[in-house]
Amino acid sequence: MEQPTIPLAQYPDAWRRTAIGLKRSADIIWEKWFGIFSRLEGGQIAKASSQEAGDLYLLIPSFLLLYGLSIENALKGLLVAKDPCIVKVKVKWKISGGGHDLIELYKESGLLISADEQEVLGALTEAVLWTGRYPVPKNHADKSEFPIPLGPFFRNIDIASVVSRFGDLKNTYDKIYSRILSRY
Fold first, then answer.
1. 3-state SS assignment for residue 53
2. 109: how many CB neighbours lie within 10 A of its CB?
3. How many CB atoms lie within 10 A of CB 9?
4. What is the CB-side half-sphere exposure of residue 41 using CA atoms within 13 A?
5. What is the pLDDT of residues 103-115, one digit of tens each?
6. What phi-psi label fits residue 121: left (phi over 0), alpha (psi between -120 and 50 degrees) or beta?
7. What whole-number distance in Å separates Cα of residue 75 and Cα of residue 133?
8. Which of 27, 45, 26 is nearest to 36 (CA)?
9. Are the C-beta atoms of 65 and 125 separated by less than 8 Å?
10. What residue segments make up the domains of the chain, in order of their start?
C-alpha cells in the first residue's frame, strides 16, 4: 500500500533551507553595500563612481527584503514543526496578516523579543510588504517621501550615522536569525 505524501509546505526543513538561501543572498548584497561605504571612508559620496552612488541607495530595499523573507521563512518553519496543519496544502497560513507580520510570527513561535528586535522586525516587515518590491505601499497617504520605512530605527540621525545604524540593524538581525535557527 502506498504511503500518503506530505506536502512540501509541511516540512520544517524546507522552510529552513529557503531561509538560509535568502539570508546568504542578502549577505552578498550587504557585503557589496557595506564594502562601498568602507572603501569611501565612511560614505564620502563625492568619491563614489556613479554606479556606486546608485548602489548605495538602490541596494538597501533588496537586502532588507531578503533579510525579512529569511526571517519569515525561518519562523514559518518553526511553526510548521510545532503544527504541520498550520499551513494548508495551497500554502494558506492560519495566521493573521497572511503570515507576513514578522513580529506576529515571532510571538507565535514562542520566542522572547526585545524592544530593539521588535523595531528591526517592524522595519523588515515593511520591507517584505512593500519597500523591497514597490516604490509606494498600497496605502501611501500616510507615508513619508523616503521610500524605505525604517521607522524609529532611523529617525533623527545624520547621513554619517546611517552606516553605523545599518550595522546595528544587521547585528540585531543576525541575533534574531541565529536564535530562530537554533530552535530547529
1. helix
2. 19
3. 18
4. 3
5. 999 998 999 999 9
6. alpha
7. 21
8. 45
9. no
10. 8-181
pTM: 0.82
Q: What is the largest CA-CA distance in the chain?
A: 70
The set of cell numbers assigned to 105 is 510570527
Give the N- to C-terminal CA distance of the chain in Å, as an integer.
32
What is the number of helices (H) and of strands (E) in the chain? 5, 0
User: Whats the size of the chain, residue-wise?
Assistant: 184
Is the separation of the CB atoms in 79 and 86 below 8 Å? yes
Three cell numbers written together for 18 = 529557503
Q: Which residues contact 26 (CB under 8 A, 6 or more apart)?
A: 62, 63, 66, 67, 70
Structure confidence by residue, pLDDT tens digits, 116-162: 999 999 989 988 988 888 877 766 665 554 445 454 444 555 555 77
- Averaged pLDDT, 23-40: 89
DSSP string, 114-164: -HHHHHHHHHHHHIIIIITT-SS-SS-TTS-SSSS--GGGGTT--HHHHHH
Distance, CA of 95 to CA of 78 (rounded, Å): 14
